[in-house]
């Protein structure tokens, strides 16, 4: 009697456990892991430049642009032409674009409005010359999620690559003294910047890590560098909005050639490097064909 009861109890517990595991597995497969996490698509780190996208001389021209100077560009990208690798100081550069070649973003951020997120996607698509970033309406459809959090250091936002998506830290932004236009442009620059990391672009602030400008406390016009506005030492061009530079565009061209589905992006920069896209206070203008 005692023993039989024990067996029944074990059997009932086993059924409950199986049911629970079944629910978890179904939940995981149907809904996708981003019901709990902010990154659905696995970070890709192939670190190779597809040889079918650009000729050798075009690759050399792109890396000549991204090589930059003291406070612009990234000298690690030189190896895209010499060794056909896409690396930062010898380490493969990651992206979250996924196998379809379109970065799908979902936003839960209140710091960045839905309109600003859509504008950032439009900005990248104009720069690329094709649709590479879209905003989706359901979290499970996304490659990653934009959301807000807290950070105890003076960090404004970040691309995590580790399942936490794109995070912004509203409490760390001390920009209330700036004009409404400059506040909006700075936030949009940060949004465009973090999406750039998801596309596989490293920092473009000069040197082997693209970190010269940030280390020196210098702000620049390339949005993949430390872009800032409204200060006594910030570039005067930034007062007119977030204007893409040839360095930003050439870096996108190289990143696209490194994706799981390699793409020819922003190739206009090879012939017309002075063209660009500008975001200014909710308006996007472009001189790109
Ligand atoms: Zn960054």
Tags for this model:
alpha/beta; Collagenase (Catalytic Domain); three-stranded antiparallel beta sheet; 10 strands; 11% strand; binds zinc ion; transmembrane
Secondary structure topology:
Layout: H1 2-31, H2 56-67, H3 79-82, E1 87-88, E2 91-92, E3 103-107, H4 114-128, E4 133-135, E5 144-148, E6 157-159, E7 166-168, H5 180-198, H6 212-216, E8 242-243, H7 246-256, E9 277-280, E10 283-286
Parallel strand pairs: 3-4, 3-5, 5-7
Antiparallel strand pairs: 1-2, 6-7, 8-9, 9-10
Helix pairs in contact: 2-7, 4-5
The structure holds zinc ion (ZN).
Residues 193, 197, 203 line the site of zinc ion.
Straight-line N-to-C gap: 84 Å
Bound molecules: zinc ion
Low-confidence runs: 18-36
Structural class: alpha/beta
């Amino acid at each position: 009697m005692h023993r039989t009861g024990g067996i029944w109890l074990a059997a009932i517990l086993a059924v409950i456990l199986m049911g629970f595991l079944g629910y978890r597995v179904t939940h995981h497969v149907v809904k996708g892991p981003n019901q709990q996490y902010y990154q659905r698509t696995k970070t890709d780190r192939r670190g190779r430049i597809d040889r079918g996208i650009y000729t050798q001389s075009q690759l050399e021209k792109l890396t000549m642009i991204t090589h930059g100077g003291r406070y612009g560009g990234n000298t690690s990208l030189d190896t895209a032409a010499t060794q056909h690798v896409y690396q930062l100081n010898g380490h493969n550069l990651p992206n979250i674009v996924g196998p379809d070649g379109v970065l799908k973003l979902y936003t839960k951020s209140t710091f960045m409005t839905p309109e600003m997120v859509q504008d950032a996607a439009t900005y990248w698509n104009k720069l690329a010359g094709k649709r590479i970033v879209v905003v989706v309406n359901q979290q499970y459809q996304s490659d990653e999620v934009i959301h807000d959090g807290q950070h105890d250091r003076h960090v404004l936002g970040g691309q995590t690559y580790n399942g936490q998506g794109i995070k912004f830290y509203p409490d760390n932004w001390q920009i209330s003294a700036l004009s409404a236009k400059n506040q909006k442009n700075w936030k949009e620059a940060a949004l465009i910047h973090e999406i750039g990391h998801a596309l596989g672009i490293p920092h473009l602030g000069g040197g082997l890590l693209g970190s010269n400008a940030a280390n020196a406390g210098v702000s620049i016009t390339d949005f993949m560098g430390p872009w800032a506005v409204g200060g006594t030492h910030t570039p005067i061009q930034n007062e007119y909005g977030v204007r893409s530079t040839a360095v930003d565009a050439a870096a996108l061209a190289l990143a696209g050639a490194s994706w799981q589905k390699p793409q020819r992006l922003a190739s206009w920069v090879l012939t017309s490097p002075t063209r660009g896209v500008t975001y200014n206070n909710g308006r996007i203008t472009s001189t790109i064909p």
